[in-house]
Amino acid sequence: MGLLPSIIWLIYFYRRDCHPEPKSLIGRVFLMGIIISPIAVFLQLAFNNISSLYFFQANTAGFFLWAALVEEIVKFVAVWSVAIKHPSFDEPVDAMIYMITAGLGFAAIENILVLFKTIPDGINVTLGVLALRFTGATLLHALSSAVTGYFLALAWFSVRHRRKFIFGGIVFATFFHFVFNIFLATTENQTAGLAMATGLLVGLSLLVSILFQRSRDRSQNISEEIRLA
């Protein structure tokens, strides 16, 4: 059940690819997103334990910033280690698809752990949490990863500024991830916090839709150039 939100979003984004990627590679990237997630947890907890600064203690802005940064880097590493050198990685939109896939894999393990804790509270609570995770954290992971993916596409097809693009992508993804967590975790009025987080997701969805279309257009242009060559 914990996999369901990620699978649904994965199917949605996968079908938006004009030249769908090999399902076997998509599966490997998704699995790597799951496998690599404990590294993020370890780094988050380790940093929290060794930091003596209040700014970086649990449930503070500093901790949420660090947590978001670690998760975005880990998802990027998942794609870099599995897909980046694969022959199928040959179009700009591929970077977004693979990053989204890794993000959804990462979200899947989070969902499983969260839902496991709700089992004693009954099926209604579990289903309610599942619905919130589907429209909230799971979508957030997909969208923030998509932002990194767009910049990864720019980096991969513009070698001169590769590192700058990758760095910029992770920074922007971390920012959106951080703000989302802040809205939900530190806003005194939970309803207001949820409303602001929802607004952020709507805005980020529109941004990713634009970036996705740009990447698809560039991919189609590349395909046309290859066909005419």
Describe this entry's structure for a reader.
- The chain has one domain (4-228).
- It is 80% helix and 0% strand.
- It has nine helices and no strands.
- It has helices spanning 4-14, 23-35, 37-50, 61-82, 92-118, 123-135, 137-156, 162-186, 190-228.
- It comes from Candidatus Yanofskybacteria bacterium GW2011_GWB1_45_11.
- It holds the Pfam family PrsW-protease.
**Helix and strand composition category:** mainly alpha
Low-confidence stretches: none
How much strand content do the residues show?
under 5%
Number of strands: 0
Number of domains: 1
> Count of helices?
9
Element pattern in H and E: HHHHHHHHH
Integer-rounded radius of gyration = 18 Å
- Percent of residues in helices comes to over 70%
End-to-end C-alpha gap: 48 Å
Mean pLDDT: 88
Net shape: globular
Give a quick account of the main beta sheet: strands, pairing sense, barrel closure: none
Question: Which helices and strands appear, and what pairs or packs with what?
Answer:
Blueprint: H1 4-14, H2 23-35, H3 37-50, H4 61-82, H5 92-118, H6 123-135, H7 137-156, H8 162-186, H9 190-228
